[in-house]
Write a structure and sequence with these properties.
This protein has 181 residues and is an alpha+beta fold. It is built from one helix and five strands, in the order αβββββ. The chain is elongated.
Length: 181
């Protein structure tokens, strides 16, 4: 009888050890997956910042060209800044699909919405959050518009154009004047 109790105790100890190992491995896997998602989200944010920096650099050059040629910067408002780049990024779709086509924007891609003159980015990760144009976190696609940049003279009586800038706007806004600054 003593041997039977010893065998049951050994079986229970073995089951407990397997349960403990399973729990520890589950926790380790969850921590690993959380870390992978955080790193991927940070990577995507850096990619967005890099793309925006490329757009802004191209707009600085184009703004200077337009001003040297005595052109009107307002003509560039709502234009596609990707046309100014030497090479389009691999995740650039071109023109965004029409809203009534039923086709959603692909995650992790950039596109240009001609009707509203918006550069649009759709994040890959649900945990991706940048602040929207009003400083609140958003889950909708991120959008920017090319606009002239102005400064006021010392007297404060006159605004003068100084170049082109990329302004963050709410994607869901329909009017073109929203988000100007």
């Amino acid at each position: 009888m003593a041997s039977r109790i010893g065998r049951i105790g050994a079986d229970n100890r073995s089951r407990f050890q397997w349960a403990l190992v399973t729990c520890l491995l589950s926790v380790a896997v969850l921590v690993l997956l959380n870390s992978v998602e955080r790193v991927a989200t940070d990577d995507e944010k850096q990619g967005v910042q890099l793309m925006l920096n490329q757009f802004r650099s191209a707009l600085v050059v184009k703004g200077a060209e337009v001003m040297l040629a005595n052109g009107d910067l307002k003509e560039w408002q709502g234009n596609n800044p990707a046309e100014l780049l030497d090479r389009l990024p691999p995740n650039w779709l071109g023109d965004c699909p029409e809203a009534d086509s039923g086709k959603d924007l692909e995650e992790g891609t950039w596109c240009f919405e001609k009707d509203r003159g918006l550069v649009v980015f759709t994040p890959n990760w649900a945990s991706f959050s940048l602040l929207d144009a009003e400083g609140e976190e958003t889950s909708e696609p991120l959008a920017w518009r090319v606009e002239p940049e102005y400064t006021t003279t010392k007297t404060g009586s006159q605004r003068r154009a100084t170049g082109l800038k990329l302004t963050r706007v709410k994607f869901s806004q329909n009017n073109r004047s929203a988000g100007r600054g």
